[in-house]
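Give me the fold.
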Amino acid sequence: MNFERFETLRTSMLNLMFVFFEKPDHTNKRLILAQLEGMEEELLSTKEGEEGRISGDDLSHAEIALSDLQSSLATCEGESATQKQIKELRNSLRNFLSECKIIELKTKGMKIDSEKWRERRRREKKEEEKEEKISPGEIFKGMTQPGSSEEKEF
């Protein structure tokens, strides 16, 4: 893997993605997909054990995350992209960047436990989902209950 090229592509992709989130258009989408294609080439050119630390499992996770990101990006159709599609794209981007970080740290010689890293990301994602959900109690908050004093007045 040419890590410098990978880093350059990642930085460029992030800049384009920032613009895409502000204004989702087909031009930015094509440019992002081109950056992702280059990153995919670098991932696929990496052999297990390259740099002495990157495992086949790490590469598989990164390739899957990249594929998910490409798929999520493909479903975002310009200005008509729904909030759900944008949210899915952001989650896919976070997952891919997390996998990139694992490869980056291992390439730089740091010893990290990839599974613990991924598990932490899963927990963070679950926490984010919990925060977004509305509990049934909150839906009816402020409404009168059957048999309450307001009902008896009528």
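The chain has one domain: 3-153.
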